[in-house]
Amino acid sequence: MSDTPQTTPREGGRAAIGDAVPRVDGPKKVTGRAPYTADHRLDEAPLIGWIVPSRAGRARVDAVDTARALDVPGVVAVLTHRNAPKQAPRGTPSDAGRFSQSHALLAAPEVACYGEPVALVLAETLEAAREAAGLVEVALTPLPGRYAVTGDEPDEALEVPDDVDGGMPADMSHGDFDLAWEKAEVRVDATYETLAEHASAMEPHATLATWDGEELVVRVAIQIVGSAVEALANTLRLDKEKVRVISPFIGGGFGSKLGIHDDAVLASLGAIATDRPVRVVQTRRDLFSSAPHRGCSTQRVRLGASRDGRLLAVAHESVMPMARGYEFAEPCAASARASYACDGILTRHRVVRADLPRIDSMRGPGEAVGSLAFESAVDELARALERDPVAFRLANVAETEPISGKPFASFDLRRCLEVGAERYGWSRRAERGRRDGRWLLGHGVASATRPNFLMEAKARVRLEDDGRAVAELDMTDIGTGSYTILSQIVADTLELPLDRVEVRLGDSRYPQTAGSGGSFGAASAGGALLSACRRLRGQLRAGGGREAEGHIEPGEDFEKYAQYMTGAHFVEVGVDEVTSEVRVRRAVGAFSFGRVLNPTTARSQLYGGMVFGIGGALTEGLHLDERVGAYMNRDLAGYHLPTERDVPALEVVMIGERDDRCGLLGSKGVGELGLCGLGAAIANAVYDACGARVRRFPLTPDAVMAARAAW
Asked: How would you classify residue 687: left for phi > 0, otherwise alpha for psi between -120 and 50, otherwise beta?
């Protein structure tokens, strides 16, 4: 196990891959010297852009009156669809993908959804821009739109997406589910619902754009630099060589900053229109409609088993909204495809086109909400069989990938369950009693699986005249520790002290990576950098050059072997006997994700994932105004992220062993694994505490109270 890492400095200040090195960028962040987007200063003060959003759903713009706004002292211009620079039609080219195609705004007199910008005020000061924005008068005619998706839509409203996030097929099956279901002696057939969610990253989406007539330089909070360049070039009809994107620090992304959004496009339009730098920082409230979010879901899970506890049949089917004009579908059934062996598996994903703000990847896409349903249903089946939930899972852990039959590169779900149960004291849980005053106590468990990806990436490293090593790649750091891990790779491979290494990230002029997202960042970018360092080391030993580039891409091992990270969550909750409030009292997670590159940063990510899991289970949910497609709780007062009072002391066990079938570093992703499954463990613990099975998330006191009354 890797929870006893090297923490003392090595001889000469060196740091090896796998050491628990503190964040090398930490001092900059705590002293305010880390250049976040909105903090960057130019020689010329930028104009401030303030967005005027539509306060209607799908609509036609009949008129925009900017006269009063232009009279405000300090206002330079107001852009609308009548005077904004020309752009390519939104969504073109169609084969570019959602992150790279045109994101045109203010290009036509139509509004696709609530919150879409209808004007941009450009002024010398924030105060002038904000005042003027309130004076822009917009006349809108509402058009017919579909906003609510309930999960019980008629068949003609359901659509099979081309694929689901990660490039997986929408529908996959193994064996004969109907026959296996018929043979099952004990069955569970349940429907689960989850509300829409919002990423709510700490730094709001922000952009600072400059245009000199030849080059557009865009400083933006973005997770994938390369696709941002392509999107801006496609939107503004520019050559890619004329677009530079810079994003050294982001301030959290959680999927919401994978691609560019309104601020990036509008700041660029403003800079081109005025020949002045333009800064656009989105307000927190507007981000709830202009930044992407996770859609609501309705998931039906059917599980069947023999009376001796062998799982026979698994079906997981989901219905979610897809934002019209934006192709994205969430793989809710991913966990059902990977975790347990059985005779027949059926997984289906369906979407309903809706006139909603953009729906996209967020915090463990697919598994985060899919595991809420699937692992809750697994627990229901174990209870129906009168079997221990841990023992039932252990008896059915898959030994090969259930659908394809491929061998796993490595699959430690069994060991995660066993180690986690031992650390938690699962066999001794009855000793804690069934109540603490008015709190009813319960214990829950859930498995966690998530596909492991390796993406193509490049990196460059060179040895300077003063003996320092400088690494350059367009990889971004969303607070996960990229600067630190990449510095360790250079220091270890080139045998240098850590303070003699400089890692430069987040600039499109550097070699291209796949960026940060999908838990593939460290293995992909780190593998490319390791390749570059090994090549440079070889060159130096041969008396050759002092600069080298490295490259990595998934090889045949990603064809021959099924690639997954695994984990297991164990949770104790208290349910207030009177109010039905749920409190997580203890949580233990055991995780396996290949080689641990840095236990300190890995543990931090797992802690963060577990906190997200608590939020998804207990507090987080967007509430839709079905008349116009607007979310009503559009700020951090109404959208309840878990706070310190909601989170107990969390315990993480890392079962990390190098897996060379997963790439050059032997590591897998970790960032989203801690989230997957925890919410179901909480729901299962609530059932254990009070006998109420709540199938709608989040488990708010009113939902738990209603379930207790009905059960």
From this structure: alpha
Peptide bond into 698 cis (omega under 30): yes
Residue 248 makes CB contacts below 8 A (sequence gap 6+) with 34, 35, 476, 477, 504, 505, 506, 507
Could you tell me which of 413, 340, 448, 451 has the C-alpha nearest to residue 676? 448
CB neighbour burial string for 393-404, b if at least 16 within 10 angstroms, e if fewer: bbbbbbeebbbe
Reply yes or no: is the peptide bond before residue 701 cis, omega within 30 of 0: no
The span from the CA of 519 to the CA of 269, in Å, is: 33
Structural tokens at position 385: 């069989």
Specify whether 472 is catalytic. no
Distance, in Å, from the CA atom of 569 to the CA atom of 447, rounded to the nearest integer, reads 6
3-state secondary structure of 594: strand
CB atoms inside a 10 Å sphere around CB 634: 20
- Give the chain's domains with CATH numbers: 11-34+455-553 (3.30.365.10), 366-451+562-711 (3.30.365.10)
* Rounded Cα distance, 352 and 558, in Å: 32
Give the whole-angstrom CA distance, residue 419 versus residue 278: 54
Hey, is 454 helix, strand or coil?
coil
What's the alpha-carbon Rg for the chain, to the nearest Å?
Answer: 26
Please tell me which residue in 203, 472, 620, 672 is annotated as part of the active site: 672
* Average pLDDT per block of 10 residues along the chain, 711 residues long: 48 85 94 91 96 97 98 98 98 95 97 97 98 98 96 94 95 98 98 97 94 97 97 98 96 94 98 98 93 96 98 98 96 96 98 97 94 98 98 98 96 98 97 94 98 97 97 95 97 96 98 95 97 97 96 96 98 98 98 97 96 97 97 95 94 94 96 96 98 97 95 76
